[in-house]
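REQUEST
  id: r-88c1
  op: predict_structure
  target: DUF3098 domain-containing protein
  payload:
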Amino acid sequence: MNVKRTFGTILTILGIIGLIYCGWGFVNHSTGNRELIVTGIIGLIFFMSGIGLVKNTKDVA
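RESPONSE
  id: r-88c1
  status: 200
  body:
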């Protein structure tokens, strides 16, 4: 079991959840602008770093 790949998957999932929450809040106007911007930026950072970890980690048999 590769820890980097697992951590990358977790970060990617958290990033997707953050981006979905940000989009949902933007469409429904349910939360403040600052909260949506911060959530979107953090979600984007998590998503990109998770994808980078999964992509750059080599499989070890």
